[in-house]
Design a protein that fits this description.
The chain has 245 residues and is of the alpha/beta class. The protein contains 10 helices and 7 strands. Helices cover 42% and strands 17% of the residues. The protein is globular. The C terminus is likely disordered.
């Protein structure tokens, strides 16, 4: 590689990183995502610039991440923010002991009233982003996600539902609507057992070829173009078929 081209690339990335850090400062009162991961989300969002489609976030708290995504991807896209706006549902055994313990420690500084925030916060964040087409979808995911009609494919799907059931219902109903080469960012993959279990179970059930990847501490899956999954046949030796050796 030409040294000048390499240096220009490094400089360009540093300029973008500085811009994304400024977006974190702009929206930090509307997001609990650490600055480094906030920036990683925005770098990942760059990858869908050329992919037509809407942006969907499931689990938005005060809407800061969606607002930053809208700032990066532009006001012409449609943005959909799904949240109960009543906090998280109860964690189950499948979500892991740490999840259950976290939800029981109501005075912990990271509890944030069980991640509860009213929709007025998200509206303010999106207004600051300059997005012209956005919709807040209030309710539990199992009630809102399965029947929701989007205007087209999903270019970027961001999942921040924490628990197994919340993550699974979103994957089951929204992953098929993600555009080829679109991205699914899974916020809690490295945090909660239930979330990582849901991702693995979902990909396994569909015999998916998609890889679980990460940029820094941010997990994502890139949707592969549709392909027929070949049937797997195993030749069984005649001796084995009769039970003899």
């Amino acid at each position: 590689m030409n040294p000048l081209s390499f240096a220009a690339g490094v400089l360009h990335r540093q300029v973008r990183k500085a811009r994304y850090r400024s977006l974190h400062r702009r929206f930090r009162d509307f997001s609990m995502i650490p600055a480094s991961q906030f920036v990683e989300n925005l770098f990942l969002a760059e990858r869908v610039r050329s992919i037509p489609g809407c942006v969907v976030e499931c689990g938005v708290w005060r809407g800061g991440m969606s607002a930053a995504l809208a700032t990066v991807l532009g006001p012409e896209r449609s943005y959909f923010l799904f949240d109960s706006f009543e906090g998280l549902p109860p964690a189950r055994d499948l979500d892991g002991e740490e999840a259950i313990r976290w939800q029981a420690e109501k005075n912990a500084p990271t509890y944030h009233d069980n991640c509860t925030a009213g929709p007025e916060f998200a509206r303010e964040a999106m207004a600051r982003s300059g997005a012209r087409k956005y919709e807040l979808v209030k309710g539990w995911f199992e009630q809102t996600v399965p029947t929701f009609c989007f205007p087209g494919p999903i270019a970027l799907l961001r999942l921040d539902g924490d628990w197994y059931d919340s993550t699974m219902v979103c994957l089951e109903h929204l992953f098929p609507q993600v555009a080829p080469n679109g991205l699914v960012i899974v916020d809690d993959y490295f945090s909660w057992d239930g979330c990582s279990r849901a991702v693995h179970d979902f990909l396994s059930r569909r015999s998916a070829a998609e890889r679980v990847r990460s940029l820094g501490e941010t997990c994502f899956v890139q949707k592969q173009p549709s392909a027929v999954v070949p049937a797997v046949s195993v030749a069984v030796p005649a001796a084995a078929a009769t039970g003899s050796r």
